[in-house]
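Intended use. Records like the one below are meant for learning the mapping from a protein sequence to its folded structure. Do not use them to infer anything beyond what is encoded.
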Amino acid sequence: MFIEIKKANKQYGSGETAVKALDNVDLSIEKGKIYVILGPSGSGKSTLMNIMGILDRQTSGNYFLEGEDVNSMDDTVRSVMRNKKIGFVFQNFNLIPRANALKNVTLPLMYSEHRPKNAKEIGMQMLELVGMADRATHRPNELSGGQKQRIAIARAMINDPSIILADEPTGALDSQTGHMIMDIFHKLHEEQGKTVVLITH
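Structure written out for the chain above:
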């Protein structure tokens, strides 16, 4: 099993004001498949994604990623694991305003253990993959919502992650652009065998 989460609980605060975001959640993700996690706002979807993406820790329960116990890792190891194995796509794109598309895409390589010398070349390959090579020098404010999300997907792919976690990736887009973004995820899954988890309401 690629990801295995057992009896995960996540609580914010304590006492009478405590909010339980996750309640005994079990989740198994197989490698090379595409999953959709559905639920209304406030149902704990993003909390679950943050735990899966090693951005947050659950209050209790177990989390294994490719057989490794994530709970037992210190923050440095967790950070390396996250950068190497997981690609993130967010609803609000999370692009750096002052950086052009290519710099935004290659940003995760800055944090990798062995930064490749051909970072720009790899970045251009990722932009080509999502049909955005001709926008490499454009900054986010010069791009449409759909173009920004394609840049975000290219950035998520730059370290050749084992899994892509997408939190409401079409939430800020019109339906036609949203369909186009979903097609890219299907393409990554079908042509590259990527494990994809999409979170949506």
